[in-house]
């Protein structure tokens, strides 16, 4: 009689089970939600960067103007709520970016595009693909930006509090931000650190600006090429303007 009991070499029996209902993703953890959140927070932080840059360019105008602007910010009652908002925007952007990266890596360990060129071990596709060195290294440039922001805030916001002593440089008793910035950027290591990080931030913006607009639905054969160019031009201008500050202090001022 042929035995009916399973042998050890038999393939495992498939036990019919009711498939588990797929866990419904919330909008904010879905791919569209994550992309939208990253786009909105990225663009909001970019708006902060424009104002931050304009304020910092007062360095070229003079100590009393820069210190006066900084003092106006410090005593402004909206500063603390604005800082809390900025921190939330930045935190959401970073958390969403990291979780998006981890999810993508888990879903697709090997990139689906064929790299045709390589730089520092990173590949990117040729034309007509929109993949570039900037777009394939967003997580790296983002993490460098994160480190930069932490170091930068410790260095400037919580850095030495030089009070203004010369009335020609501003009202006595006001924080001397001009002295702080010029003192910091006179150091070779700090200047090199800033030149490196600000270049990386420019690379992040190079792809990030257009990508954010695409994620928000701005994508058409007519407008996308224009936006792509505009995003790149703006990122170069922003990076160059930020870079001019440490370079001017180090090579011209000191
Ligand atoms: C060379 C360029 C830069 C200079 C000279 C500069 C200068 C400063 C100074 C002086 C402060 C302290 C403000 C205060 O406490 O009154 C500050 C704060 C800050 N900076 Fe910059 N910054 C530069 C570039 C950047 C960049 C590229 C970023 C972002 C990627 C950034 C992000 C911030 C943030 C988030 C704060 C804290 C704002 C707050 O809490 O009020 N900065 N910066």
What does this structure look like?
This protein has 254 residues and is mainly alpha-helical. The chain has a single domain (28-106, 128-253), classed as 3 helical TM bundles of succinate and fumarate reductases (Up-down Bundle). It is 62% helix and 2% strand. It has eight helices and two strands. It has helices at residues 31-56, 63-74, 79-107, 133-136, 138-157, 177-185, 188-215, 224-253, and strands spanning 117-119, 122-124. A two-stranded antiparallel sheet has the order 1-2. Helix 1 (31-56) packs across helix 7 and helix 5 crosses helix 7. The chain is elongated and about 60 Å long. The mean pLDDT is 85. The protein binds protoporphyrin IX containing FE. The site of protoporphyrin IX containing FE has 21 residues, from helix 1, helix 2, helix 5, helix 6 and helix 7. Residues 49, 52, 56, 70, 73-74, 83, 145, 149, 152-153, 156-157, 177, 181, 194, 198, 201, 242, 245-246 line the site of protoporphyrin IX containing FE.
Relevant terms:
254 residues; elongated; 62% helix; single chain; 3 helical TM bundles of succinate and fumarate reductases; mainly alpha
């Amino acid at each position: 009689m042929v035995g009916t009991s399973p042998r050890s070499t038999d393939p495992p029996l498939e036990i019919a089970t009711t498939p588990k209902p797929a866990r419904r993703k919330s909008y904010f953890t879905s791919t569209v939600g994550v992309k939208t959140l990253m786009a909105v927070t990225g663009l909001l932080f970019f708006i902060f960067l424009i104002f931050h840059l304009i304020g910092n360019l007062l360095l070229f105008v003079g100590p009393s103007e820069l210190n006066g602007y900084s003092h106006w910010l410090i005593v402004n009652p909206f500063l603390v709520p604005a800082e809390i908002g900025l921190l939330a925007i930045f935190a959401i952007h970073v958390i969403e970016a990291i979780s998006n990266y981890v999810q993508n890596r888990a879903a697709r360990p090997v990139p689906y595009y064929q790299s045709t060129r390589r730089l520092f071990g990173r590949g990117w596709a040729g034309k007509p693909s929109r993949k570039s060195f900037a777009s394939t290294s967003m997580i790296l440039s983002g993490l460098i930006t994160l480190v930069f922001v932490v170091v930068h805030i410790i260095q400037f916001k919580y850095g030495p509090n030089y009070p203004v002593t010369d009335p020609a440089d501003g009202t006595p008793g006001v924080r001397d931000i001009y002295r702080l910035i010029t003192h910091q950027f006179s150091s070779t290591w700090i200047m090199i650190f800033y030149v490196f990080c600000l270049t990386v931030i420019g690379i992040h913006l190079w792809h990030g600006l257009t990508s954010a607009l695409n994620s928000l639905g701005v994508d058409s054969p007519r407008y996308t090429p224009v936006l792509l160019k505009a995003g790149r031009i703006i990122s170069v201008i922003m990076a160059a303007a930020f870079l001019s500050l440490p370079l001017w202090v180090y090579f011209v001022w000191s």
